[in-house]
Every structure is written in C-alpha cells, then in structure tokens.
Design goal:
With 192 residues, this protein is of the alpha+beta class. The chain has three helices and ten strands, in the order αβββαβββαββββ. Strand 9 and strand 10 form a beta hairpin.
C-alpha cells in the first residue's frame, strides 16, 4: 500500500529566549547604577564646593595669609614669623632673607592631631662662631642635640621634647652667617 505524501510542515515559531530578557534587565540595572553613581558624584562635588572656604588676605605689611577650611579639616599659611611664635631667639641685628622664606603653617585634619610648622631664615654679617656662641648661651641646657659642622657644613642646635621639635641651623655664607630656624609641633592644642 502506498502512503500518501504529507505536505511539509510550516516552520515552528521561534520560542522567546529567556537569555535576551536577562540581558535587557542586566543592562537596565547597570545603567541605573551608572546614573545613581554620577548623581552621587555630582551631589558630592556640589556639597564640597559649597563647604570649602578659601580666604586670601594681604596685610598692610605686604604679608599674605591664606586660609582653607573644609569639613575634613583646615590649612592656614601665614607669611612671616617672630621670636614669640618661633619659640626660638632671633639673633640680634639679623635680617630676614626673603619674606617668602618665613612662614607659619597650621594643618588641622578632623579627628587627627594638629600640626604646626614655623620656619624662618635670617642672615647677619657676624661670624659663625659669634652667632653659635649666642645660641649656646640662649638655648643652654634645652639643647638635646648639637652638631658642629655636619656633612652640609652647618652647625645645628636641636631641641626635642615630646611632640615638639625646634632646630637652629647656622652656616657660613660668604661674609655672612645664614640662620635657619624651624619649629614643629603636633598635638591637640590650639594652633596660634
């Protein structure tokens, strides 16, 4: 017996693939993360720019004072120093070399110790030996370390106590004596 040929079957409709839906959902989720991240960065930058205060003040003497305050802390830089702020005697008759070489820097980071750095550079026509004798007398037994003519040719007086370091470095500079002073202190005390 002969069988009758059957007409060809129409192709089956393709079944929807689940992976295309998962891919679309993943891409939408990724786009949402990118948009939220960009929005967070934008808001963060806006908050910080509104919270950061920068103040530059120039006194009548020509000295500049810069103050930057943020929610994370503050930085202050004041040109010029004096004997009281340095906590070190300034050699009588010496003159500041450049106003830009003497400054007070106060750094206060939230929940950290405050850091204060004072620097001053002076010069005098007096001899290195005469200036060194002055500092030997004035600093006396406060000195915790003394080096005469170190590898850089400097005579160095160091005073270290707890979280406070003071240094006076002397060096011959032609017919003059260069005096460099640094005072570094750290702690929770208020910076002046």
């Amino acid at each position: 017996m002969a069988t009758t040929p059957q007409p060809p079957r129409p192709p089956a409709e393709p079944r929807p693939q689940r992976s295309s839906h998962i891919l679309a959902i993943a891409l939408l989720f990724l786009a949402l993360i990118v948009v939220l991240g960009a929005l967070g960065i934008f808001i963060g930058v806006r908050v910080l720019t509104n919270a950061v205060h920068v103040n530059v003040d120039q006194a009548d003497s020509g000295k500049k004072n810069v103050s930057i305050k943020t929610p994370l802390g503050s930085l202050e830089v004041n040109q010029g120093v004096n004997e009281a702020s340095l906590g070190l005697p300034i050699y009588p008759g010496s003159t500041a070399i450049k106003e830009n070489d003497s400054a007070t820097v106060n750094l206060d980071i939230a929940d950290e110790e405050k850091l204060r750095v004072l620097t001053g550079k002076f010069e005098t026509p007096d001899s290195l030996d005469k200036v060194a004798a002055f500092y030997h007398i004035r600093l006396g037994d406060q000195v915790t370390s003394f080096k005469k003519k170190n590898e850089e040719g400097k005579t160095v007086f160091e005073i270290k106590h707890d979280k406070e370091d003071r240094v006076v470095a002397l060096k011959s500079n032609g017919d003059k004596t260069l005096i460099e002073m640094v005072h570094v202190s750290a702690g929770r005390q208020e910076a002046n």
